[in-house]
Structure formats: C-alpha cells, structure tokens
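Bumping my old thread because nobody answered last time. Still need a sequence for this structure:
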C-alpha cells in the first residue's frame, strides 16, 4: 500500500479520444487523466498525498506564488520499450535536483521515496498514455511545487502544494535532427553568481522570455546565454546544456555553477568514453568558440536536455557575427551520442549504468 491514495477519475478519456490525442501530441499541449498532489505545512509536514482526476487548482488571488514566484519544478520522461514495458530514466537525479532547487527557493524538501512514488504511481495509472515504442515520443512528467498560501508579503510561505502532471510528447524542436541556430544574447543574462541559475525555478524562465523573442526575431531557435559578469563565458541555452566536440576528440561542456546540472548533460559526459571522446568540464569563452569554429578545431556543437534530447547546433548568431559550426550539418559524434542515449532510454542498448527504473 503506497503513500498516495488513488482515486481514479470518472471522466477519463475514452480509448478513441486518447488515440486521437496521441496521434499528434506536439509538446506540452495534451495531458493525461490524472495528477498527483500533496500539501506541506510546517506542523504536519507533507500530507494529503493523492492521485486523482486532473483538475484545475483553486487559488486565492493572494497566493504567494502568483506574486513572489516561490516555485520549483522538474522534467523527466517515461519511455515505452518494444515489449510494452514502461521505464523512467534516472528519476533519482530529478528527486535530488528538486530537493536542491527547493532549498534555494526556501521551499520544503520532498524526499526521494515520495518523489519516485508520485511519478511512478501516476505513470502506472495513466500508462495507456505512454506513446507506443518506435518513434521519439514519450510521456513527459512535470513534478512541481509552489507557494499556495494566501498571503501578501515576502517570506517563505507556510502552505506549499506539490503536484505531478503528465503529457505525452513528440520532439521539442521543429528543426529536430537537422540542427538549430542559437542567438548569443549579450543584453540579457540568465544567471549571476549567488543567484538562482542552478535551480530549476520558474523565475529563471520568465526572465528569459524577452531574450527568446529577440532570438526568434533574428531567425534563431533558442538563446545561448553568456555569464552575467563578463558576458564572455558560455553558459547554457534556454532549456538545454551546451557541448562542443573538437578535432582532437574532446567533448567540452561549460562547468557547473550558475547553470542547471542537467541529467542529460551528466549522461552524455558518462557516455563520452565509449565514443572515443574525452569529457572535459571547464569554462569556455565566446572568443574561443568563435576562433575555433573559424579555424575548424571545433567540429561539432550540440545542446542536450530531457525535452530537446540531443539537438545539433549548426550556427551561433550574434549582433555582429554569424558563426557556422563546421559545414553547418549535424556532426557524426552528435548523432551517435543521440542514438546511443535514445537506445538506452528505449531499451535497445545495454543500460550499463543502471539508469532505467521499471514502472510497469
Ligand atoms: C535551463 C536548463 N538547462 C538545461 C536543462 C537540461 O536538463 P535535463 O537534461 O536534466 O533535462 C534544462 C531542462 O530540461 C533547463 O531548463
């Protein structure tokens, strides 16, 4: 008997409605029948764990999250293997990151067991929504917690709501494997030392929207952020970590600190060896990127994240320059790493690191 009381929805989608929704899910538009919730108060701790019908929240207009953005979230996926079984990828890492984001936002931590039970039980109940094996579709899970206390004033809230919702998804980028162009933003930054860059909190994304519009106006797919002090060091993209492959087989990614500790980033670094690449984490300057793309010693670039998978970067565009990576085509190592990671996630390659956890 689990911690979450399960009350199945009596208005779940019919098989035909679900099939229609799954035929072209896009990203983040279609939701399953259920949600998991729990509530935290200082006296009772986490309580009222439930999985029930997906429904809107009722919030008082003064709910602290609406004013002071005390909120954190996660993103992970459930994958269907060829034998019909359903698996999560490294959910323990999402649990740890949610706890660390929560600490930064003065929110209560949710322990790993509760986190994993919340996502596992939700996926189990909504397993018919996990897309079929064979494409690049999956069930995206969005655990989040927010200050639901009705209160105007700046202090950590004393009523917090935790929730998990689930959304069947296809790829994140229309460009897909053909590669994306990134806008190198010099007038917007995402994070500063001591700030919230390493936390997955909504405010980081709200502050990036203006830069994202700017990127779109320049014909780019996403923003590449630079550091907030010197505007010279590569950080990450809007929802992805950044990698470079060099002619001497280094796989370079910016060091952690003010960026999100991406689970795809960590996985790619651990797979590097088996692709004859040396993983390197160090600061990377815009000057180095421009010089090495120009002289050909950077041969590939890609971005990595749960939603975006591994996406080739074919161009970096700035105010006064355009930097093409190699011949502007997705690189070989990029595509091989992408295939390898997807093969592990979908059960087609050996899971040597023990990353998969079976749900059903
Ligand atoms: C800002 C940011 N960087 C990087 C990532 C990649 O992290 P992960 O690989 O854990 O999905 C994400 C989320 O997907 C993100 O929002």
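Sorry it took so long. Here it is:
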């Amino acid at each position: 008997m689990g911690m979450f009381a399960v009350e199945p929805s009596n208005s779940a989608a019919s098989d035909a409605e679900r099939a229609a929704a799954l035929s072209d899910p896009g990203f983040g538009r279609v939701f399953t029948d259920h949600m998991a919730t729990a509530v935290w108060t200082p006296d009772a701790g986490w309580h009222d764990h439930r999985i029930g019908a997906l429904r809107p929240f009722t919030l008082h207009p003064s709910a602290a999250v609406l004013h002071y953005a005390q909120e954190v979230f996660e993103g992970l996926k459930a994958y269907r293997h060829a034998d019909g079984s359903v698996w999560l990828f490294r959910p323990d890492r999402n649990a740890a990151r949610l706890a660390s984001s929560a600490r930064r936002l003065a929110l209560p931590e949710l322990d790993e067991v509760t986190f994993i039970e919340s996502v596992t039980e939700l996926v189990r109940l909504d397993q018919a929504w996990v897309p079929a094996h064979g494409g690049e579709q999956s069930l995206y899970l969005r655990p989040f917690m927010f200050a639901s206390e009705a209160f105007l004033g700046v202090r950590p809230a004393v009523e917090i709501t935790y929730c998990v919702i689930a959304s069947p998804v296809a790829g994140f980028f229309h460009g897909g494997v053909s590669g994306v162009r990134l806008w190198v933003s010099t007038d917007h930054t995402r994070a500063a030392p001591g700030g919230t860059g390493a936390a997955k909190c909504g405010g980081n994304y709200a502050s990036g929207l203006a830069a994202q519009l700017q990127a779109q106006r320049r014909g780019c797919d996403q923003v590449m952020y630079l550091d907030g002090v010197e505007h010279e060091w590569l950080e990450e993209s809007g929802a992805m970590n950044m990698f470079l492959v060099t002619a001497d087989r280094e796989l370079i990614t910016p060091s952690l600190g003010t960026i999100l500790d991406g689970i795809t980033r960590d996985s790619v670094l651990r797979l590097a060896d088996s692709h004859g690449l040396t993983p390197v984490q160090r600061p990377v300057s815009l000057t180095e990127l421009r010089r090495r793309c120009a002289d050909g010693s950077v041969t590939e670039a890609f971005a990595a994240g749960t939603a975006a998978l591994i996406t080739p970067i074919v161009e970096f565009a700035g105010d006064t320059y355009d930097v093409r990576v190699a011949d502007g085509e997705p690189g070989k190592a990029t595509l091989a790493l992408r295939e390898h990671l997807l093969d592990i996630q979908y059960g087609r390659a050996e899971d040597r690191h023990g990353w998969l956890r079976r749900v059903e």
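The longest strand covers residues 138-147. Let me know if any region looks off to you.
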